[in-house]
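We emphasize that the prediction below concerns an isolated chain of 310 residues; any contacts that depend on oligomerization or on bound cofactors are therefore not represented. The input was used exactly as deposited, without trimming of termini.
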Amino acid sequence: MDSTPSKPTDGPRIRTVLGDIAPADLGVCDAHDHLFLRSPQLAGQELNDPAAAAIRLRAFREAGGRAVAQWTPYGLGREPRELAALSRAEDVHLVAATGLHQSAHYDAATLRKAGDGGLENLFVAELTEGIAGTGIRAGLIKVAGAFHGIDAHARYTMTAAARAHHRTGSPIAVHLELGTGALDVLDVLCGELEVAPERVILGHLGRFPDRVAQHQAALSGAYLAFDGPSRANHATDWRLADQLAALTDAGFGDRLLLGGDTTVPSTPGLPYLLRRLRPKLELTLGETLMKQILTANPARALGAAWLPQQ
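Result of the prediction step, given as a token string:
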């Protein structure tokens, strides 16, 4: 696989750190992970070592991985130049994120700086011009809900994300706190703010293994990301196959995504997704469906008919 971007087409494109590619060129994709991440909530457990990131990415590539969506948003140590260098060196497509996480992950000065000039404009600039003057563009907007709902900060960031989406066509990826609040997020993003559900990726659904809630979220048309493994409740891990099978049986196999969500160095993350989780899930779901979940679904979810800046 050559990570050099192909020429843009008139159809949907995926915006990687090296440029736009056709969705068909994405390949096997970890739809939610982190190569770099720094947060006061994870003090002493930073992902800030390019050499360690290269080792993880190389192991993922050797297991058949071809692409990673990196959900680290503004102000949390994205390292865009390192992402571009890793993409070239390890021959893996990388999608970077703009957006803003929960307020607990920032100090007051960082939040003020993000809001200077309008949060929406920051997101648009990072999607269309580049992150922090690097010329390396983000390919998705990452925001976050609150526990079982939407707080003021979530509404603020989601409003900016929706407006940036309408100006660019970019997909919106949502951290659901412990997997909760999916329907509240959809009410705001897709109801009040008129984002098409198929442009929304809901993260961490497996951390709240309520099949009714998962089914209701799937009915909207949004993509459902099951990304882990869990660090707190192993029951969510052994229930994963049953959750995915139930959603597939209900007709939602084309809305499912998988990710490693490496948040601290001890997370098994990218290689684990393909080396251990994929063969285990193939026993329940079959190879054909697993190929769809890892390849076809993320190609649609991350693709966008990118609009010129408005």
